[in-house]
TrEMBL record:
Residues 1-19 form the signal peptide. It holds the Pfam family PALP. This is 1-aminocyclopropane-1-carboxylate deaminase. Keywords: Pyridoxal phosphate, Signal. The keyword Thylakoid does not apply. The lineage of its organism: Eukaryota, Haptista, Haptophyta, Prymnesiophyceae, Prymnesiales.
Length: 491
């Protein structure tokens, strides 16, 4: 072993020991949901073949609980055009996870398909101390909205309340504020804004088994399996000719649940012989959206080297693949880790990442270019006619950052053309196209929240010209923002 390799190994061992308490806590949180077989009602009412993972691995059908949750699967792959800085048109594809549900779409629907079903199955089996359920996120968390909405829709009688642990304020942005309002519009939610209250609920669930906790971004083996299924779905669309085989897939990286699932899904699709992801230029491009994680990645290659630390890509891959194999599926750990080493680009650029929760200068500029004249459309197979589709919601918190990276790579490719065709790029659209508003008066609940949150809400600008509005608890009213929200039948 080279001296530098030995030094690195010793450093990583020291870091593992230093952060052992945090690592152990996160691992207990990851394990909180666990796994459970489906209920008789699930087997009788759910179309399990509609889930790509269960369809391709039927041995799993009676091993893991599943609920579809969404109502538009497979999510389509659309085309998008945006003008480059030089005025030329740039073309790319979009996996429309944002359209997966008319209640609330985005990538977290897949994460919850197994997680909420497992919680339902554990409750139906009479398992003690499954409740209360606590979901963890920050003030603008998509995970918190998705859990509140889909738990209220899928298991309302079993889940009387949902703890929503909002751990830290984020950059003031109306998209983040709207997510808080969506959570407040679901009456069964109990926001935990005090760090002590949040920590108490999390510790009770993680260490004493009194309740269940959903980790940041839903990062757990069951949540990650939902993203594996999404990647299998894309592989099937590619094989059937409904989607082009991409050279690069761009995805936001927060908890690493989604990107880890895409990597495992790619490895699994190859193991199953699906004709997809065959380009010699194929890469999964994960763009880190938290400035602290980006800094750690730049210095220590956190996601590849910290393979035992929860929420690193390496650890998430290992944990998820181990559970998949334990359930009777193939063990693709080696293939997935090889993909991580050779076909995954982790973008930790500080200028692109900016500050967690809001736009960087680069992501704001990219999203403004789309808002000014970008077009998203489907193409009729027979006629070749373009049909305008729902515009992309490019939030500064998440998806605008991989979008900016995608545009930069397309422009760089066109400037340095050396006879190769342009990159065929695909954006994994994780932000829901629907901003839900349940039956509870979110405006009234906002006024019962601490002043710090209300001041933060008032500071948040509307970054997109496609979605003008404001939230001003001190001088405005709900009519200033409700045009951006969609009424959904949830109490």
């Amino acid at each position: 072993m080279k001296f530098i390799d030995l030094l690195t190994a010793l450093l990583m061992k020291f870091i593992d020991l230093l952060f052992a308490p945090l690592s152990g806590t996160l691992r207990r949180m990851q394990d909180s949901v666990g796994l459970a077989p489906p209920t008789a009602a699930m087997l009788a009412t759910e179309d399990l073949n509609a889930c790509p993972l269960l369809r391709r691995l039927p041995v799993l059908k009676d091993k893991i609980a599943y609920r579809a949750l969404g109502d538009r699967f497979p999510t389509p792959v659309h085309e998008t055009s945006v003008s480059s800085e030089s005025g030329a048109e740039l073309h790319f594809f979009v996996k429309r996870e944002d359209l997966s549900s008319t209640l609330y779409g985005g990538n977290k629907v897949r994460t919850l398909q197994f997680q909420l079903a497992i919680i339902e199955a554990r409750l139906e089996a009479g398992e003690p101390d499954v409740l209360p359920l606590t979901v963890i996120g920050t003030w603008g968390s998509n995970q918190c909205v998705a859990t509140a909405v889909h738990a209220a829709h899928a298991i309302p009688s079993l889940l009387p309340t949902l703890n929503v642990a909002l751990l830290e304020p984020e950059v003031a942005d109306i998209d983040n504020t709207l997510n808080v309002l969506s959570v407040l519009s679901v009456g069964r939610t109990l926001p935990l804004l005090s760090p002590l209250h949040s920590l108490a609920a999390i510790m009770r669930a993680a260490f004493w088994g009194r309740g269940t906790v959903l980790t940041m971004g839903g990062n757990s083996p069951s949540g990650c399996l939902g993203q594996v299924s999404a990647m299998l779905e894309l592989a099937e669309q590619i094989e059937s000719g409904d989607a082009a085989d991409p050279d690069r897939i761009y995805v936001a990286m927060g908890s690493s649940c989604t990107v880890s699932g895409l990597i495992i899904g790619c490895a699994l699709s190859r193991r199953l012989g699906l004709r997809a992801f065959e380009s010699p230029r194929f890469r999964v491009c994960g763009v880190i959206i938290h400035h602290h994680i980006a800094a750690i990645q730049r210095r220590l290659d956190f996601h590849r080297r910290w393979t035992s630390f929860p929420c690193s890509i390496g650890q998430t891959i290992r944990a998820t693949c181990a559970e998949l194999a334990r359930l009777g599926g193939p063990d693709v750990t080696a293939e997935a880790l090889e993909l991580l080493a050779t076909q995954v680009i982790i973008n930790d650029d500080a200028q692109l990442c900016g500050k967690y929760g809001g736009h960087s200068t680069l992501s704001r500029s990219a999203s403004q270019r789309y808002d000014a004249g970008g077009r998203t459309y489907s193409v009729e197979k027979r006629s070749g006619q373009r049909v305008e589709e729902t515009p992309l919601w490019l939030c500064g918190h998440f998806v605008a950052k991989p979008f900016a990276a995608l545009l930069a790579d397309l422009e760089g490719c066109s400037r340095t053309a050396n006879g190769e065709p342009p990159l065929r790029c695909l954006l994994w659209q994780t932000k829901s196209a629907v901003q839900p508003r349940g039956r509870t008066d979110e405006w009234a609940r906002l006024h019962s929240m601490p002043r710090k949150l209300r001041e933060w809400a008032a500071e948040g600008p509307a970054e997109s010209r496609l979605r003008p509005g404001k939230v001003d608890p001190f001088g405005g009213g709900p009519e200033d923002y409700r045009q951006m929200m969609t009424e959904v039948p949830l109490d």
